[in-house]
Amino acid sequence: VFDDEEESKLSYTEIYQEYQALVEKLLEDYLKEVGINEEKFQEAFSSPLARTHTSQAILQTVLAAEDFRLFKNMMVQKNIEMQLQAIRIIKERNGVLPDCLTEGSDVFTEIEQEEMKILREVLRKSKEEYEIEQEKKRTEE
Prior knowledge:
BART_sf, 6 helices, Adp-ribosylation factor-like protein 2-binding protein fold, about 140 residues, extended
């Protein structure tokens, strides 16, 4: 759903709100499970150990629940990672990348065109299913 455009769409806000609720619930449940209250968590969160590169990478998902721009950037990055994964899959299936992905050429073979159709259809179907799920949630509320 997320793209790298400057302007954010209304659907981003809805997804962000769901993300916030999910992170909050998971965090609350985890803190209860390990027996830590919110104050101790805040202390640990602001300690020097929490500022290490590894800790920051882990905490980024929590921080994204408080910062929409960070959340959007994280989602755009995930989309890019998924696109790169799709490219790797195409390379594994064909043994090489299509010219259009290596030399800037727009010439596709029939197989490459079919694979692109499949990728587009998968993305379209995924977005369609997401929108249907969101509509169901709205009607239930």
